[in-house]
Structure formats: structure tokens, C-alpha cells
Write a structure and sequence with these properties.
Layout: H1 3-11, H2 13-24, H3 36-48, E1 53-58, E2 72-79, E3 86-92, E4 111-112, E5 115-117, H4 121-141, E6 148-154, H5 165-170, E7 181-184, E8 192-197, E9 199-208, H6 223-243, E10 260-268, E11 285-294, H7 300-317, E12 323-331, E13 334-335, H8 341-354, E14 359-363, H9 369-374, E15 381-383, E16 398-400, H10 401-419
Parallel strand pairs: 3-6, 3-7, 7-15, 8-14
Antiparallel strand pairs: 1-2, 2-6, 4-5, 5-16, 8-13, 9-11, 9-12, 10-11
Helix pairs in contact: 1-4, 1-10, 2-4, 4-10, 6-7, 8-10
The structure holds zinc ion (ZN).
Length: 424
């Protein structure tokens, strides 16, 4: 227990709300990736005034980067006078587009019934603000803390993180010896530790045909019919097989505790923006984009192989069937070990602050932890932060003020334990 730290964080409640509002009022919508620099500067200026070294780093030539929409990141580092490990808090500063149906101003940061409303309050500017307040309170409480603390605000998580965490990881910002432990305050609920995520494979499959006049389809070969044959096989064979593959990963919601497949898009024949009546042409191409989410228990070669096996079988058995398959993206599943220091310290802090056992969960979709593991080779990393996961990307998104305060206490206490070697 650390009652004086908790009191100090309670006393900063208004500052926490104000900082969240300040961040939310900058509409860092991605795509296109707007206002990254001003948002990064809110974080950078604040921490610089508290003795942090601040670096701004633009991810030149990453997807979406341009002079109009520069991919700006900020990394702030506080270094104690005594040596010790480094704990890094990383949050993405981008938010998804607003969408219709809001009853509050999405960039107003309105406070109502103990909640702050706005796009990005939950995912995840409230989490960034909670981490900053936690660290400020801890450093006021223990000015001679050993080790180092870093706080970063990064771009583009919502579009893959290539201009954000991936870029910084490539430059060594997420590797030892610079950093030892990482907490990503994504909205996973205040009593849950998120250990990792399922894997992803996106691919485009194109079936081929031969054009002819639509009144005489027998003179051509219809790519849409070939695609239908493929989709029917997936429906009959693959979906039941995937539903039967249960994971030992504690994925939430539990429906995602199995392998899943989605068809993200399907298109064949005339372009969708044709004008007038549709031309009677037998389609010579049909494309489907598949979104396959897989488990630690599966190998990516098998995940791809079972789709390819259906396609190859069709090529052998169905007259005229031909296809091409193109990989779009792949991310391997990952799960931090429960015995890792950052897991034990945050789990212990949840128990102390909230008085209940934490849940250990895995995310159905990926987030920036993938780059920290694959590029930075750092595996002592979790997501932990305030906010209700289901509210992310929704209209009237909000974060509970009490949640932010509680999670700040958890982060402050865990940071103290990690840096003073009470967890190693
Ligand atoms: Zn997020």
C-alpha cells in the first residue's frame, strides 16, 4: 500500500480531467492523421516542464505521411539520479472518425455524471492522461526514484501503427537496454490485464473468368460463379472447422476464443460506380478480402494452407477454375507470460487498489504491442488502462473519471514497485 501516493492522485482528479479534455479537443482523426503535432506538444510541453527530456520524431515516408499529414510522435524521458530499470507508458494519440448519431460534441470533452465525453476519451486519451498524472504524482512523492520513466504519444495505431510504435521500435525506442517494461494504457477496464492478442492474416483472393456477352454466358466463363464455388466450400468446410478450434488464450469477448474468419469485402463484375444500366458482360474477375484471426495454437502456414488447399482442390476438380491469392497483412499472435514483472506488478497493484483479483485477458484484435514484441524484441509488455473496451469507436464515447483515477493509482503503484525492485 502507498496511501500518500493514492491521496496525491485523488488530489489531482481535476487536473486529470482537464488534461483528458485538452487532448480530446484536438481532433487527431486517422485517417487522414490530422493534428498529431499539436497533440504531441500538449504531452511534450507538460512533461518538459516537469524535467523530462522530450523528443519529437516524425515517421517520414511511412504510410500516410506527408507534409500536410506528418506522422508525429513524442517521447518524454525522466531519468533518476540512481540507476535502475526503465518503465515506458505508450499511448496512441490518433482516434477513429466520429460517425453519425452523437448527442454530445465529439471534440468538446464535456463532463457529465462523472464521465468525460468525446471521441478518444476511452480509446485512449483518458489512458494517456491517467498515465501522465500517475507518473507526476509518483515523482512528487518519491523524487529520488531510481531508474527511468518514459511516456510516449504515438501516431497511427488505428491504421496499423507503422508511423508510430513500429517506427520508434525500429529506431530502438522499444528495446533493451533503453526500456525494460512497457504498459499501454488502452481501454481494457480497470481490473483487467491484457497480455496480448490473436493473430491476423488478411489476403485477397481473385477468381478468374473470361468475358462474353451477358445474353450468351456459355461463351464466356463467369468469375463470380467460380468465387461462389469457393465461398460455398469455405461455408461448408472451413467455418465449422474454425468454430471447433478453441484457444487456451483468455480472449475477450469469449466468442473470440476460437478461430474466426470474416469476408471484409467482395466484388465482381462492373465497377460499383458505373452509370446508367449495367452492361451485360460476363465478369472476368471476382475478388474477396478475407480477414482471418488465429490463435497461439495455430501456425500461420497452416492458416494459409487450409485456404489454399480448397482453392487448389477447386483448380483440380472444377472446370475453368483459376485464382490468385495475395497476402495483405499478417501479424502473429502473442501473449506475455503471466510471470513477467510488468504483469505481476500491475496485477498486484489492481488487487491493492481495487481490492479484487484482476482478470487476465487477450484482445481479439491486434494493437501496438505487436511492434514492441516483433521489432523491439521486448516481451515484458501489457495493455492496462481505464475505459470500457466496448465503448471504443462508438458514438457518445466516454471514460469514467473514477476509472481514470483508479487506474492512475494502479499505474503509479506498479511503477513504484518496478523501479524500486520490489518486482523483478
Ligand atoms: Zn486504442
Amino acid at each position: 500500500m502507498f496511501p500518500s501516493l493514492f491521496q496525491r492522485i485523488d488530489g489531482k482528479c481535476d487536473a486529470l480531467v482537464q488534461l483528458t479534455q485538452e487532448l480530446v479537443r484536438i481532433p487527431t482523426i486517422n485517417p487522414p492523421g490530422d493534428y498529431y503535432r499539436p497533440c504531441a506538444e500538449v504531452i511534450g510541453r507538460r512533461l518538459q516542464a516537469r524535467g523530462f527530456d522530450v523528443i519529437y520524431d516524425r515517421a517520414h515516408d511511412t504510410p500516410g505521411d506527408s507534409d500536410r499529414y506528418p506522422r508525429e510522435n513524442v517521447v518524454a524521458r525522466w531519468e533518476g539520479r540512481r540507476p535502475g530499470p526503465c518503465l515506458h507508458f505508450n499511448g496512441h494519440i490518433d482516434v477513429v472518425d466520429v460517425g453519425p448519431g452523437w448527442t454530445t460534441d465529439p471534440f468538446g470533452g464535456e463532463v457529465k455524471d462523472g464521465k468525460v465525453y468525446g471521441r478518444g476519451t476511452c480509446d485512449m486519451k483518458g489512458g494517456i492522461a491517467a498515465a501522465i498524472i500517475a507518473v507526476e504524482a509518483l515523482l512528487e512523492e518519491v523524487p529520488d526514484l531510481p531508474g527511468a520513466i518514459e511516456i510516449s504519444g504515438t501516431a497511427d495505431e488505428e491504421s496499423g501503427g507503422y508511423g508510430g510504435v513500429a517506427h520508434l521500435a525500429r529506431k530502438g525506442f522499444f528495446s533493451k537496454p533503453r526500456v525494460d517494461h512497457v504498459v499501454i494504457p488502452e481501454p481494457l477496464n480497470v481490473d483487467r490485464v491484457c497480455l496480448g492478442h490473436r493473430g491476423v492474416w488478411w489476403a485477397e483472393i481473385e477468381t478468374k473468368g473470361r468475358p462474353a456477352h451477358g445474353s450468351m454466358p456459355f461463351l464466356g466463363d463467369c468469375a463470380v460463379r467460380h468465387m461462389t464455388a469457393f465461398l460455398s466450400r469455405v461455408e461448408a468446410e472451413l467455418f465449422p472447422a474454425l468454430a471447433g478450434r478453441q484457444s487456451a488464450m483468455p480472449v475477450v469477448p469469449p466468442g473470440a476464443r476460437q478461430s474466426t474468419l470474416n469476408f471484409n469485402a467482395l466484388h465482381g463484375g462492373l465497377p460499383e460506380d458505373f452509370e446508367g444500366l449495367p452492361a451485360p458482360i460476363v465478369p472476368d474477375s471476382c475478388r474477396v478480402t478475407i480477414d482471418r484471426r488465429f490463435l497461439l495454437e495455430e501456425r500461420i502456414e497452416d492458416v494459409k494452407g487450409e485456404v489454399q488447399a480448397i482453392l487448389d482442390d477447386l483448380r483440380k476438380t472444377r472446370a475453368g477454375f483459376d485464382y490468385e491469392m495475395r497476402d495483405i497483412m499478417e501479424v502473429l499472435p502473442l501473449m506475455t507470460d503471466k510471470s513477467a514483472p510488468v504483469v505481476r506488478s500491475v496485477a498486484g497493484a489492481i488487487q491493492e487498489v481495487l481490492g479484487r483479483q484482476p482478470d487476465f485477458v487477450v484482445s481479439p484484435g491486434t494493437y501496438d504491442q505487436k511492434h514492441i514484441a516483433r521489432i523491439g524484441h521486448l516481451h515484458d509488455c501489457i495493455a492496462y488502462g481505464p475505459g470500457i473496451l466496448d465503448l471504443a469507436h462508438q458514438r457518445d464515447e466516454y471514460v469514467g473519471i473514477d476509472d481514470m483515477v483508479q487506474s492512475a493509482k494502479v499505474m503509479g503503484l506498479a511503477a513504484h514497485q518496478l523501479l524500486t525492485g520490489q518486482v523483478s
